[in-house]
Amino acid sequence: MSREKILVPLGPDNHDFNALYHALAVAERIQAKVYVVYPESPQPAGTRPDWMARHLKELIGKACQQGLAVSCHISAGPLPAELIDIINEQQIDLIIFESDGDNGLVTRAISEVISTVPIQAVQVNGKSTSTSRLRKDEAKCRSS
What we know:
Largest sheet: 7 strands, mixed
Strand order of the largest sheet: 3-2-1-4-5-6-7
Strand content: 25-35%
Radius of gyration: 15 Å
Number of strands: 7
CATH class: Alpha Beta
Number of domains: 1
Structural class: alpha/beta
Shape: globular
Helix content: 25-40%
Order of helices and strands: EHEHEHEHEEE
Oligomer: single chain
C-alpha cells in the first residue's frame, strides 16, 4: 500500500505556517508523507529572518520525532515549474497552501500548477479552507 503524499509550498512572506500545521495534522491522521517547498529568497542572502528558518526546522523536527515523514526542499527556480516537477516525480496526491497576501507568489504558482496538472489543492486561510481540483476535462470544481 502506497503512502499518501502532501505538498506544502511556503512563500517567502509566510510567517505563520498555517498550511504546514494543517498538512501535518492531516498527515498524522492518514499517515501521509509531507513535502515542504520553500522558495529561495529573492532578497540578498541573510536577509530572511532567522526565526522563520529556525521555526520551520523545529516544526519539521518535531513532526519527524512524532513519526511523520517530512521532506523539505529549497526551490531555486521558477516555483510553478519546481512544484510540477515535485508533483510528477514524487506522485503527490494533494497540495495544501496558504494565501500569501500581496506578494501572491504561492497563489499564482498554484493557479498555474492546477491548470497544468490534475491535482487537488486546499487553500488554508486561518479557520476557513477552500478546495480546488482541476479535472482532466479541465472543469474546475470549488467547495467551501
